[in-house]
Amino acid sequence: MRDVYRKAYLTICATSAACSADGFLLPRVFEWVELQWTWPLEEPALRTGVFYLARYKSSTPRDLINQKIEESVWNSRTWTFQERLLSRRMLHFTSAQIYFECASKFESEDEVLLEKARLNRKSVFCNQIGLGATHIDLYKRWYTLVSHYSARSLTYPSDKLPVLSGIALEMFQLLNDCYLAGLWRNDLIRGLLWELDERIPTPQTYRGPSWSWCSVKSGIAWPYVHDISEHIIKIMHTSTTPVGLGPFGAVSDGEILLSGKTVAVSVTKHQHEGRQIDSHSRLPYRVLSRLEWHLVHRNMDIGVASPSTDYNLAENRAPYFALWVLSGYPGARILHRGLILERTEDSQQHYRRIGTFFLHSNNSWMFSGVVDGTITLI
């Protein structure tokens, strides 16, 4: 499909369709206003008539675009992600009107409306993927693309990597880097630090190696990591086994052999309550409650943990293992980030990734005197 979208002069998008069987020419839904008119014409039959004016429910043009395109079922599906990203020009058939979208502009039937509603196409869906970008920019753009993609609906779990294969191939041609189950070899240290938007049970079927975002069902995102960061681990060897002919599709397994510092840790749950000003209520604020996981070493709370799933982490269970990955410098602070691991049942040197953590600079003492060891992530 990559070549179909890339080489098409124009892609017609069934944006208002709820499923593939609906087609794209669906009835338009308007709120009509009737205006009676009269005109001093000689023919009596032509002296009266009715104007039908369509009134949009949305208060602003951007709200209408968000409602009809961005929040549509079409835009929530994984299979339409590359359709929108790779197509050079698109016609969106919605229940309100037709929209034209390309890399430089966004137009619709109502020219007056769109004079004030032109969207910035330097967004995540800019189909000029590598225009004027450095390798660092491209890696960051990949993480942004994957974050948006991972939040979309997917019918068959085995499609998670194949659906993204066309975009991965586009990025490969720009980066000339080794593709590893949704991550890139030359930026793998940062790539390993993905986090979940929400914690949900572990998938029952295999989707990918635990160190890849494709192994989970939830939407994911990457924390901010400064470009000038100190890498603590050393990647020694990587491998994946593709399912099928191409390297950009599904995989049956994957390994990362690395050298780094690990220490035994446990995790605990903390329920935090805070106050937030609420402008929509008569109350001055509302109470917010959120659940946090904390990393514990030698009975001391030393950092914040972000589990991959609630199913994987058990409170106060030990040992889990903290792998120090890198140290970043956001502003005046130093943050140490790493992975939370557990050993597999059949090997002392094979580990699964089950989460991430970060420590503030004064808690890096837990790794003092720890000798680098060799481990394998699967």
UniProtKB/TrEMBL annotation:
Protein's recorded name: Heterokaryon incompatibility domain-containing protein
Pfam family, one: HET
Record-annotated Heterokaryon incompatibility domain positions: 1-83
Protein's organism: Lophium mytilinum
InterPro entries: HET
